Here is the input.
Amino acid sequence: MADLVEEPQALWTTPIADREAAEAAFGRVYADPVVVDGAAMSVADLVQRVAARQPAFAGLTMQILDRVVAGDLGLLTQLGAVSLSPTAG
Here is the structure.
């Protein structure tokens, strides 16, 4: 199995082509439900969220800001990309 730091990076930065395969892959890494920005969501909802956002960005990257190991692995990450959406002028 890939490292528990590298695998989440690949999940967020690789375009999702197969929703079921993506849900299985995310399910191996994330608890269900997973807490994102303070809100609990299912792994299926997380995959939907990621898939909806990926086309809006170019050069999507993930930077690990902190790694905490306390029974379960916890990561604090920051995503970076260039928005492809038009901005209001």
Remarks:
- The radius of gyration is 14 Å.
